[in-house]
Amino acid sequence: MIEQLTIPFHYEYMLKAIFVSALIGGVCAFLSCFVTLKGWSLMGDALSHSVVPGVALALMLGLPFAVGAFFAGLLAAAAMGFVKAKTPIREDATIGIVFTSFFALGLLLISLYPTGFNLRTIVFGNMLGIADFDILQAIAICGIAMAVLLAKWKDLLLFCFDANQARSIGLNTTALHFILLSLLSAVAVAALQAVGACLVVAMLVTPGATAYLLTDRFGRMLGIASTMGVLTAAAGAYASYFLDGSVGGCIVVLQTTLFLLAFAFAPKHGMLAARRAGRKAVTTTLREVSA
Protein backbone atom coordinates (compact mmCIF):
# COMPACT_ATOMS: atom_id res chain seq x y z
CA MET A 1 0.00 0.00 0.00
CA ILE A 2 2.72 2.48 1.01
CA GLU A 3 4.71 1.51 -2.07
CA GLN A 4 1.69 2.33 -4.26
CA LEU A 5 1.26 5.74 -2.59
CA THR A 6 4.92 6.68 -3.17
CA ILE A 7 4.88 5.86 -6.89
CA PRO A 8 4.44 9.55 -7.97
CA PHE A 9 7.65 10.45 -6.10
CA HIS A 10 9.62 8.08 -8.37
CA TYR A 11 9.05 10.32 -11.38
CA GLU A 12 10.98 13.56 -11.87
CA TYR A 13 8.11 15.28 -13.69
CA MET A 14 5.79 14.61 -10.72
CA LEU A 15 8.32 15.96 -8.22
CA LYS A 16 8.67 19.11 -10.33
CA ALA A 17 4.88 19.46 -10.61
CA ILE A 18 4.32 19.04 -6.84
CA PHE A 19 7.12 21.47 -5.95
CA VAL A 20 6.12 24.21 -8.41
CA SER A 21 2.40 23.80 -7.62
CA ALA A 22 3.08 24.20 -3.88
CA LEU A 23 5.28 27.24 -4.50
CA ILE A 24 2.75 28.98 -6.72
CA GLY A 25 -0.16 27.90 -4.50
CA GLY A 26 1.47 29.48 -1.44
CA VAL A 27 2.22 32.81 -3.12
CA CYS A 28 -1.22 33.00 -4.76
CA ALA A 29 -2.86 32.27 -1.40
CA PHE A 30 -0.82 34.96 0.39
CA LEU A 31 -1.81 37.51 -2.27
CA SER A 32 -5.42 36.31 -2.23
CA CYS A 33 -5.86 37.76 1.29
CA PHE A 34 -5.22 41.26 -0.08
CA VAL A 35 -7.38 40.59 -3.16
CA THR A 36 -10.25 39.42 -0.94
CA LEU A 37 -9.95 42.39 1.43
CA LYS A 38 -9.77 44.87 -1.47
CA GLY A 39 -12.66 43.23 -3.35
CA TRP A 40 -10.56 42.71 -6.46
CA SER A 41 -11.77 39.22 -7.36
CA LEU A 42 -13.00 40.39 -10.75
CA MET A 43 -9.70 42.18 -11.32
CA GLY A 44 -7.81 38.90 -10.81
CA ASP A 45 -10.09 37.16 -13.29
CA ALA A 46 -9.66 39.97 -15.78
CA LEU A 47 -5.87 40.07 -15.56
CA SER A 48 -5.52 36.30 -15.88
CA HIS A 49 -7.43 36.39 -19.17
CA SER A 50 -5.88 39.63 -20.40
CA VAL A 51 -2.35 38.17 -20.49
CA VAL A 52 -3.15 35.98 -23.53
CA PRO A 53 -2.29 38.59 -26.24
CA GLY A 54 0.97 39.29 -24.40
CA VAL A 55 1.82 35.59 -24.51
CA ALA A 56 1.06 35.48 -28.24
CA LEU A 57 3.18 38.55 -29.03
CA ALA A 58 6.09 37.35 -26.88
CA LEU A 59 6.14 34.00 -28.68
CA MET A 60 5.99 35.71 -32.09
CA LEU A 61 8.99 37.88 -31.10
CA GLY A 62 10.91 34.97 -29.60
CA LEU A 63 10.72 36.34 -26.03
CA PRO A 64 9.83 34.47 -22.81
CA PHE A 65 6.04 34.39 -22.64
CA ALA A 66 6.09 35.66 -19.05
CA VAL A 67 7.48 39.01 -20.23
CA GLY A 68 4.65 39.58 -22.69
CA ALA A 69 2.03 38.29 -20.25
CA PHE A 70 3.20 40.60 -17.46
CA PHE A 71 3.10 43.74 -19.60
CA ALA A 72 -0.23 42.74 -21.16
CA GLY A 73 -1.67 42.43 -17.66
CA LEU A 74 -0.42 45.89 -16.70
CA LEU A 75 -1.74 47.35 -19.97
CA ALA A 76 -5.15 45.79 -19.31
CA ALA A 77 -5.21 47.23 -15.78
CA ALA A 78 -4.29 50.65 -17.14
CA ALA A 79 -7.01 50.37 -19.80
CA MET A 80 -9.60 49.53 -17.15
CA GLY A 81 -8.55 52.50 -15.06
CA PHE A 82 -8.64 54.84 -18.07
CA VAL A 83 -12.11 53.74 -19.23
CA LYS A 84 -13.47 53.94 -15.67
CA ALA A 85 -12.04 57.46 -15.18
CA LYS A 86 -13.27 58.82 -18.51
CA THR A 87 -16.77 57.29 -18.66
CA PRO A 88 -19.76 56.81 -16.30
CA ILE A 89 -19.68 53.04 -17.00
CA ARG A 90 -19.70 50.88 -13.84
CA GLU A 91 -16.48 49.12 -12.85
CA ASP A 92 -17.77 45.57 -13.40
CA ALA A 93 -18.85 46.45 -16.96
CA THR A 94 -15.46 48.11 -17.60
CA ILE A 95 -13.60 45.01 -16.42
CA GLY A 96 -15.83 42.77 -18.55
CA ILE A 97 -15.28 44.86 -21.69
CA VAL A 98 -11.50 45.11 -21.32
CA PHE A 99 -10.70 41.55 -20.33
CA THR A 100 -12.90 39.95 -23.01
CA SER A 101 -11.38 42.30 -25.61
CA PHE A 102 -7.83 41.34 -24.58
CA PHE A 103 -8.70 37.65 -24.46
CA ALA A 104 -10.32 37.80 -27.90
CA LEU A 105 -7.30 39.67 -29.30
CA GLY A 106 -5.01 36.96 -27.93
CA LEU A 107 -7.06 34.18 -29.51
CA LEU A 108 -7.08 36.09 -32.83
CA LEU A 109 -3.28 36.58 -32.80
CA ILE A 110 -2.66 32.92 -32.01
CA SER A 111 -5.01 31.79 -34.81
CA LEU A 112 -3.50 34.22 -37.37
CA TYR A 113 0.13 33.64 -36.43
CA PRO A 114 0.53 30.06 -35.16
CA THR A 115 3.78 29.67 -33.23
CA GLY A 116 3.59 26.00 -32.31
CA PHE A 117 2.61 26.90 -28.76
CA ASN A 118 -0.47 24.93 -27.73
CA LEU A 119 -3.39 27.22 -26.86
CA ARG A 120 -4.57 24.65 -24.30
CA THR A 121 -1.39 25.31 -22.30
CA ILE A 122 -2.46 28.95 -21.84
CA VAL A 123 -6.11 28.23 -21.17
CA PHE A 124 -5.82 25.09 -19.02
CA GLY A 125 -2.14 24.98 -17.96
CA ASN A 126 0.34 22.11 -18.33
CA MET A 127 2.11 21.57 -15.03
CA LEU A 128 3.16 17.98 -15.84
CA GLY A 129 5.07 19.20 -18.89
CA ILE A 130 6.72 22.21 -17.28
CA ALA A 131 10.25 22.93 -18.57
CA ASP A 132 13.27 23.73 -16.39
CA PHE A 133 13.32 27.33 -17.66
CA ASP A 134 9.66 27.77 -16.67
CA ILE A 135 10.46 26.42 -13.19
CA LEU A 136 13.24 28.96 -12.74
CA GLN A 137 10.91 31.66 -14.05
CA ALA A 138 8.20 30.68 -11.54
CA ILE A 139 10.73 30.60 -8.67
CA ALA A 140 12.00 34.07 -9.61
CA ILE A 141 8.50 35.57 -9.92
CA CYS A 142 7.29 33.99 -6.67
CA GLY A 143 10.47 35.04 -4.82
CA ILE A 144 10.20 38.67 -5.92
CA ALA A 145 6.45 38.78 -5.23
CA MET A 146 6.86 37.35 -1.71
CA ALA A 147 9.74 39.71 -0.92
CA VAL A 148 7.60 42.72 -1.92
CA LEU A 149 4.56 41.41 -0.04
CA LEU A 150 6.52 40.77 3.15
CA ALA A 151 8.18 44.19 2.95
CA LYS A 152 5.00 46.15 2.25
CA TRP A 153 2.23 44.02 3.76
CA LYS A 154 1.26 46.51 6.47
CA ASP A 155 0.95 49.40 3.98
CA LEU A 156 -0.95 47.18 1.54
CA LEU A 157 -3.24 46.02 4.36
CA LEU A 158 -4.20 49.60 5.25
CA PHE A 159 -4.60 50.50 1.56
CA CYS A 160 -6.90 47.51 0.97
CA PHE A 161 -8.88 48.11 4.19
CA ASP A 162 -9.34 51.89 3.82
CA ALA A 163 -7.56 53.77 1.03
CA ASN A 164 -8.71 57.16 2.37
CA GLN A 165 -7.17 56.52 5.79
CA ALA A 166 -3.97 55.29 4.15
CA ARG A 167 -3.81 58.53 2.15
CA SER A 168 -4.52 60.65 5.24
CA ILE A 169 -1.50 59.27 7.11
CA GLY A 170 0.81 60.01 4.19
CA LEU A 171 1.00 56.72 2.32
CA ASN A 172 1.36 56.93 -1.46
CA THR A 173 -1.84 55.12 -2.42
CA THR A 174 -1.15 55.48 -6.15
CA ALA A 175 2.13 53.60 -5.73
CA LEU A 176 0.44 50.97 -3.53
CA HIS A 177 -2.30 50.57 -6.16
CA PHE A 178 0.34 50.02 -8.84
CA ILE A 179 2.33 47.61 -6.63
CA LEU A 180 -0.74 45.48 -5.95
CA LEU A 181 -1.70 45.41 -9.64
CA SER A 182 1.88 44.51 -10.62
CA LEU A 183 1.97 41.69 -8.07
CA LEU A 184 -1.39 40.43 -9.29
CA SER A 185 -0.17 40.41 -12.90
CA ALA A 186 3.14 38.74 -12.01
CA VAL A 187 1.59 36.00 -9.87
CA ALA A 188 -1.13 35.39 -12.46
CA VAL A 189 1.64 34.79 -15.01
CA ALA A 190 3.38 32.33 -12.68
CA ALA A 191 0.13 30.47 -12.02
CA LEU A 192 -0.73 30.39 -15.73
CA GLN A 193 1.56 27.38 -16.24
CA ALA A 194 -0.03 25.52 -13.30
CA VAL A 195 -3.74 25.93 -13.81
CA GLY A 196 -4.18 28.04 -16.95
CA ALA A 197 -6.00 31.31 -17.56
CA CYS A 198 -9.42 29.79 -16.79
CA LEU A 199 -8.64 28.58 -13.27
CA VAL A 200 -5.94 30.96 -12.06
CA VAL A 201 -8.53 33.27 -10.51
CA ALA A 202 -9.57 30.44 -8.15
CA MET A 203 -6.04 30.25 -6.72
CA LEU A 204 -6.01 34.05 -6.36
CA VAL A 205 -9.34 34.22 -4.51
CA THR A 206 -10.44 30.95 -2.86
CA PRO A 207 -7.72 30.53 -0.15
CA GLY A 208 -8.16 34.12 1.02
CA ALA A 209 -11.96 33.84 1.01
CA THR A 210 -11.77 30.59 3.00
CA ALA A 211 -9.41 32.08 5.58
CA TYR A 212 -11.65 35.17 5.82
CA LEU A 213 -14.45 32.90 7.09
CA LEU A 214 -12.18 31.32 9.70
CA THR A 215 -10.61 34.31 11.44
CA ASP A 216 -11.02 38.04 12.07
CA ARG A 217 -7.28 38.70 12.41
CA PHE A 218 -5.39 39.49 9.21
CA GLY A 219 -2.07 37.99 10.33
CA ARG A 220 -3.79 34.70 11.11
CA MET A 221 -5.69 34.94 7.82
CA LEU A 222 -2.37 35.16 5.93
CA GLY A 223 -1.11 32.05 7.73
CA ILE A 224 -4.26 30.00 7.14
CA ALA A 225 -4.52 30.99 3.47
CA SER A 226 -0.84 30.35 2.74
CA THR A 227 -0.86 26.94 4.44
CA MET A 228 -4.03 26.01 2.60
CA GLY A 229 -2.56 27.17 -0.72
CA VAL A 230 0.63 25.16 -0.33
CA LEU A 231 -1.07 21.96 0.88
CA THR A 232 -3.95 21.94 -1.62
CA ALA A 233 -1.65 22.72 -4.54
CA ALA A 234 0.81 19.95 -3.60
CA ALA A 235 -2.01 17.50 -2.83
CA GLY A 236 -3.82 18.37 -6.05
CA ALA A 237 -0.72 17.75 -8.16
CA TYR A 238 -0.10 14.47 -6.27
CA ALA A 239 -3.73 13.30 -6.64
CA SER A 240 -3.76 14.08 -10.37
CA TYR A 241 -1.35 11.16 -10.89
CA PHE A 242 -3.80 8.59 -9.49
CA LEU A 243 -6.89 10.25 -10.98
CA ASP A 244 -5.19 10.76 -14.35
CA GLY A 245 -6.85 14.18 -14.37
CA SER A 246 -5.96 17.83 -14.82
CA VAL A 247 -3.55 19.18 -12.19
CA GLY A 248 -5.29 22.55 -12.18
CA GLY A 249 -8.69 20.90 -11.87
CA CYS A 250 -7.56 18.80 -8.87
CA ILE A 251 -6.05 21.83 -7.10
CA VAL A 252 -9.10 24.05 -7.57
CA VAL A 253 -11.56 21.28 -6.59
CA LEU A 254 -9.61 20.73 -3.35
CA GLN A 255 -9.58 24.44 -2.58
CA THR A 256 -13.30 24.72 -3.34
CA THR A 257 -14.02 21.76 -1.05
CA LEU A 258 -12.23 23.47 1.83
CA PHE A 259 -14.15 26.68 1.12
CA LEU A 260 -17.47 24.81 1.27
CA LEU A 261 -16.47 23.19 4.58
CA ALA A 262 -15.54 26.60 6.01
CA PHE A 263 -18.77 28.08 4.62
CA ALA A 264 -20.78 25.45 6.48
CA PHE A 265 -18.76 24.86 9.67
CA ALA A 266 -16.69 28.00 10.36
CA PRO A 267 -17.03 28.65 14.12
CA LYS A 268 -18.08 32.30 13.81
CA HIS A 269 -18.91 33.11 10.19
CA GLY A 270 -20.15 29.71 8.96
CA MET A 271 -23.73 28.95 7.93
CA LEU A 272 -24.41 26.72 10.96
CA ALA A 273 -22.94 29.29 13.35
CA ALA A 274 -25.18 31.96 11.83
CA ARG A 275 -28.22 29.74 12.36
CA ARG A 276 -27.26 29.08 15.98
CA ALA A 277 -26.78 32.79 16.55
CA GLY A 278 -30.16 33.52 14.94
CA ARG A 279 -31.96 30.95 17.12
CA LYS A 280 -30.22 32.28 20.23
CA ALA A 281 -31.29 35.85 19.38
CA VAL A 282 -34.91 34.78 18.86
CA THR A 283 -34.93 32.82 22.15
CA THR A 284 -33.46 35.78 24.03
CA THR A 285 -36.05 38.14 22.53
CA LEU A 286 -38.94 35.82 23.45
CA ARG A 287 -37.67 35.53 27.04
CA GLU A 288 -37.43 39.31 27.34
CA VAL A 289 -40.96 39.75 25.94
CA SER A 290 -42.45 37.07 28.23
CA ALA A 291 -40.66 38.52 31.27
UniProtKB/TrEMBL annotation:
Alphabetical GO biological process terms: cellular response to iron ion; response to zinc ion; transmembrane transport
Stretches that traverse the bilayer: 17-37, 57-83, 95-115, 135-153, 169-188, 194-214, 221-240, 246-266
Chief place of localization: membrane
Membrane-topology descriptor: Multi-pass membrane protein
SUPFAM superfamilies, alphabetized: ABC transporter involved in vitamin B12 uptake, BtuC
Keywords: Membrane, Transmembrane, Transmembrane helix, Transport
Pfam families: ABC-3
Family: Belongs to the ABC-3 integral membrane protein family.
Subcellular location: Cell membrane; Membrane
Example of a GO cellular component annotation carried by this entry: ATP-binding cassette (ABC) transporter complex
InterPro entries: ABC_BtuC-like, ABC_TroCD
Entry superkingdom: Bacteria
PANTHER family associated with the record: ABC-TRANSPORTER METAL-BINDING PROTEIN, IRON TRANSPORT SYSTEM MEMBRANE PROTEIN HI_0360-RELATED
Keyword Membrane in record: yes
Organism in which the protein naturally occurs: Terrimicrobium sacchariphilum
The name this protein goes by in its record: Manganese/iron transport system permease protein
